[in-house]
Amino acid sequence: MAELRFVTTWWLEAPIDEVYRAIAEAPCWPAWWKSLCAVEELAPGNREGIGRVYRTTWQSRLGYRLCFEVRVTRVLPGRLIEGVARGDVQGTGRWRLSEEGRVTRVRYEWRVRPVRRWMALLAPVAGPLFAWNHHAVMQDGAEGLARRLEARLLATSHD
């Protein structure tokens, strides 16, 4: 299976603590992230969130849905959340937050392999379409989070 690797960075004019709280509360994401259909918490994890398990269902811009679970494996409160995904995709995701003045930088790294047969077969040639879709979904997240926090989204980048 081909591995897909994406890095997205958001710059928000908002306090890092507010941004972190919003990202750490995945069950609330569908209220502000329009590409996210549903989040169900399957396990609460410990006080920091390690061990927390979510099932998420995403609607792609290409017409298909993805469903996968994420288990939080590492947390540095206010700065980092890492997790392992399994389901329609499997791999890792990592949120890293940093702050400069009134600007919070959110960097999301997503390294996954498609598990669905059709996606795995197409990934070597459809990589650019999957990347376009991922970037569009992440842009939805950036804009939604900015609205949720009543903050200015200063920029986004997709590597």
Description:
The chain is an alpha+beta fold. It has one domain: Alpha-D-Glucose-1,6-Bisphosphate, Chain A, domain 4 (2-Layer Sandwich), CATH 3.30.530. 26% of the residues lie in helices and 48% in strands. It has two helices and eight strands; from the N terminus they run E-H-E-E-E-E-E-E-H-E. It has helices spanning 16-24, 117-149; strands at residues 4-13, 36-43, 53-59, 65-76, 80-87, 89-100, 103-114, 152-158. Strands 2-3-4-5-6-7-1-8 form an eight-stranded antiparallel beta sheet, with helices on one face. A hairpin with a 1-residue loop joins strand 5 and strand 6. It is globular, with a radius of gyration of 15 Å. It starts with a strand and ends with a strand. This is Polyketide cyclase/dehydrase/lipid transport protein. Belongs to the ribosome association toxin RatA family. InterPro entries: COQ10_START (IPR005031), START-like_dom_sf (IPR023393). It comes from Halomonas ventosae. Residues 13-123 form the Coenzyme Q-binding protein COQ10 START domain.
